[in-house]
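Usage

Read records sequentially. Each one opens with the input sequence:
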Amino acid sequence: MQLNFDIGFAERRKTAAAARQALLASFKPRPARPAPHPIDGAAERAAELEQVRQDRAQAKAAKRDAAADAIAAQALAEEEREAAALEAKRGARRERKALSAAEAKAKRDARYAARKARR
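and closes with the structure output:
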């Protein structure tokens, strides 16, 4: 391998200019490739907007359903409380009636016994 050290100034300038041109060529914009399918930005934005609207409508409906379920559960609990209170009231009335019936029977028996005792 033999090296040539006989390179002159002009040759070095030519090599440097070629390197500079190659570097500048790397920064030049390349021709644009056409898109595989045309991009319609307005349609994409409209589709995204429609999707957001649907998501919000679903969230709103879910929130409304949850609120309706909560109200229904609260009404059911209130009905159960009222039914339990009514049953307790009825139980107390039955108890009072039973006691008064027992007292009335005791009074009748006492009168009957007093009548028998007088004879």
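Summary fields computed downstream for this record:
- The longest helix spans residues 41-118.
- The two ends are 160 Å apart (CA to CA).
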